[in-house]
Design brief:
The protein is mainly beta and 182 residues long. It is 7% helix and 37% strand. A hairpin with a 5-residue loop joins β1 and β2. The radius of gyration is 15 Å and the shape is globular. The N terminus is likely disordered.
């Protein structure tokens, strides 16, 4: 119940517009991929900083690092089905807590962005091996597992990563990361 309240507050606080499909949390959560470098860090006129990691590389922000091991698209997942869901993206990642405090991976920590920048939240209750949503990591600790993203179709794009410090207050995030997955 606590995660549902945090998720709702985060979505409302982020001011996500309704440009996405039924299972989407919205659009305009990041600049179009075509305006971002293939890798590196850039600051936009709105003051927001984006760090981009290319496919196969590790994204490193100040309190979190994320490496994508792969993505599989499947229809055979037991998870809540938002309207418009036809398939699930199961993303295998390694997340490392590089902060000095124990952190918990929030449902709003990592989003799937399709090629049109529509954002999809991970399914917190998905029945998969080694789910990461809700996992606590001590300082310096890593975890490898799965994030499940309900989607209207197979997508190519990026994972939008929020720092641990911003994951439950994404509307105020000033530095985010993108990991390219396809």
């Amino acid at each position: 119940m606590r995660w549902a309240a945090i998720l709702l507050a985060a979505i409302l606080g982020a001011g996500c517009s309704g440009g996405g499909s039924g299972g989407s949390a919205g659009s305009n959560t990041a600049p179009p991929s075509s305006t971002l470098p293939r890798s590196g860090t850039v600051t936009y006129t709105d003051g927001k900083v984006y760090t981009v990691a290319p496919l196969g590389a590790k994204l490193v922000l100040d309190d979190i690092s994320v490496a994508v091991a792969g993505i599989e698209w499947t229809k055979a997942i037991s998870a809540p089905l938002p309207p418009g869901t036809t398939i699930f993206g199961v993303v295998r990642v390694t997340v490392t807590n590089t902060s000095d405090a124990t952190q918990t991976l929030a449902p709003t920590q990592i989003w799937l962005l399709d090629s049109k920048n529509h954002a999809f939240l991970s399914a917190a209750a998905a029945q998969v091996r080694h789910p990461l949503v809700g996992k606590s990591l001590g300082p310096g600790q890593s975890a490898t597992g799965s994030l499940v993203f309900p989607a209207p179709g197979r997508e190519n794009g990026n994972l939008l990563v929020y720092r641990f410090a911003d994951a439950t207050d994404i509307a105020h995030a000033h530095h985010v990361g993108l990991v390219r997955y396809g």
